Amino acid sequence: MQSIYKYRFDRPTIYWTVAYWLVFALLGGGLYYLYEGGYLSAWFTSFIVALVALMSLSIPRKIVVTDETLQVRCLLDITEIRRDEIASVRRVEKSDMKWIVPLFGGCGFFGYYGHFLDLRRFERVKLYATEWRDFVEVVDIYEDRLYVSCAEADRLVAELTPPGGNRPIEE
Questions:
Q1: Which pLDDT score is estimated for 37?
Q2: pTM for this model (two decimals)
Q3: Strand duo 78-82 + 112-118: pairing
Q4: Which strands sit side by side in the sheet containing 2-6, from one edge to the other?
Q5: Which helix (H) or strand (E) holds 139?
Q6: SS3 state of residue 107
Q7: Rounded Cα–Cα distance for residues 137 and 140 (Å)
Q8: What is the DSSP string of 82-98?
Q9: How far apart are CA 162 and CA 168, in angstroms?
Q10: Which of 69, 91, 86, 100 is closest to 136 using CA atoms?
Q11: What confidence tens digit (pLDDT) does each residue in 22-67 have?
């Protein structure tokens, strides 16, 4: 049995993506005209093309839940957690996510993905979202935290909650 939860882009994500493209184009065009095609504009263009390519490969596409695993599938990457290693699953409010800041990953360019820092707990978390709402926190038995967003967050929580309920959180 397999359940698929698709990602969708919300308006702020689309606006941020357009803003990134505009900034990249303005900077590239400005460097091209200022340095008349010199090495600096070529270096910048190569850097931006590589950055956009790397970020594009990590854009989350869908969440796939099978009998054995939870998979977050990106264009090139798959993050996988075995279902028997899931300790707890819960909904997270948007207001609780204000303490999450990017460490290494995309923030607004076709979504929010990569490694982020939780300033409240001062720990690294993984985040895969294309909209900044409807978050689900998945904690595995190794205490690694994964945040995903999807329109059917309640159904995802119900499907992923371990048999017997969530394990108690030791703080």
A1: 63
A2: 0.83
A3: unpaired
A4: 2-6, 60-66, 69-74, 78-82
A5: strand 135-140
A6: strand
A7: 10
A8: EGGGEEEEEEE-GGGGG
A9: 12
A10: 91
A11: 998 888 788 777 777 677 777 887 888 888 888 888 888 999 999 9
Amino acid letter, residue 29? G
**With a cut of 50, which residues of the chain have pLDDT below it?**
171
Q: For residue 19, give both structure tokens.
A: 């803003």
74 and 128 Cβ atoms separated by less than 8 Å:
yes
Report whether 158 contacts 164 (CB < 8 A).
no
Rounded-to-10 torsion of CA 128, 131, 134, 135:
30
Q: Token pair for residue 116?
A: 């982020």
Structure tokens at 149: 């967003």
Could you give the 3-state DSSP secondary structure of residue 146?
Answer: strand
Residue found under tokens 């707990």: 121
What is the pLDDT, as a whole number, of residue 170? 55
Q: Using DSSP, state whether 54 is helix, strand or coil.
A: helix
**Is residue 122 helix, strand or coil?**
coil
Longest dimension (CA), the chain: 66
